[in-house]
Amino acid sequence: GSPLSYQQPPKEKVKTLHNAPPPPPLPLQDYRLKPSECMFVCSRKQQLHMKSLEVTLELSRSIECATREQSVRADWHNVRRPQVTASRFREICHV
């Protein structure tokens, strides 16, 4: 849209729920996505690549600690490079 549209008041007022329940603690124990009806068989190379992207809870916590103040840390850039981030997901969807 036009840059001017960003300066206009919102069309609808944002509703704030003050009595909403708190979010559940993450990660949810033993939570798994249901199998999809879409079946895609990965090649061995693709399977290995997908396996390399898996991260355990302990590893994710250590990565989080090691990559605080991310913009100044090389570790953060090295960890993020192979990951499918939101911006990279958008790129993939628009290929």
From TrEMBL:
Residues covered by region (Disordered): 1-29
Domain of life: Eukaryota
Protein name: Uncharacterized protein
Organism: Nothobranchius korthausae
